[in-house]
Design brief:
The protein has helices at residues 2-6, 41-58, 74-83, 133-144; strands at 7-14, 23-30, 33-39, 64-70, 88-99, 106-111, 121-129, 149-157, 170-174, 180-181, 197-200. The protein is an alpha/beta fold and 202 residues long. Bound molecules: inosinic acid.
Amino acid sequence: MLIRTKISYYFHIFAPAYSSIVTHMKEIRILDKNFREFITEKAIQERVDEIVRQMNTDLVGKDVVFLGILNGAFLFAADLFRRIELQVRISFVKLASYEGTSSSGTIKELIGWNEDIRNKTIVVIEDIVDTGNTLERIVDELIIRKVSEVKIATMLYKPQAYTKSIPLDYIGFEIPNDFVVGYGLDYDGYGRNLPSVYTLIH
Ligand code: IMP
């Protein structure tokens, strides 16, 4: 109920005089910011289908664990998982920030490991790869845990922000370096439940 008071949905309909085509542009407000629909639910779900088709081929005969990165990847992970036609396990981990004693300040720790992943093919499932810092942290941890192979699946990828060289195996959409919400991604905790992806209106 709280979220209903925080997010308001409304439509703007622009009908340019020079055209009979009416463009429906969906905008939402979350807290103090306005967002415009950027990737529709239909486009996302079609892309999920394509990615799963590829996974069904690539992962045949492997001992696979999907590793969803909380919180953002829970929707993408669920959509992939319910469509995959192979026997695959799923687990989730979370990067928790805490104030460390080192001079570097905040330290991120990966919590929630409850699966034996040694010698397995791990498919890391991310909502978004931005700078790649999170991804690098996770991949380092997987190497320490002696997995046999790591593949990366991310729904969104910001190539202009990416600073790492870890190859991304499955990418939903490459997007500009702008702030987005929806399909698992949040603004200050809100917007994760939106089935489409929305971009910030500047
Ligand atoms: P990284 O910079 O690749 O490590 O991304 C870190 C995290 O920042 C992601 O897992 C997201 O949770 C969050 N993030 C990055 N870009 C966005 C965005 O555009 N909207 C919402 N969250 C984002």
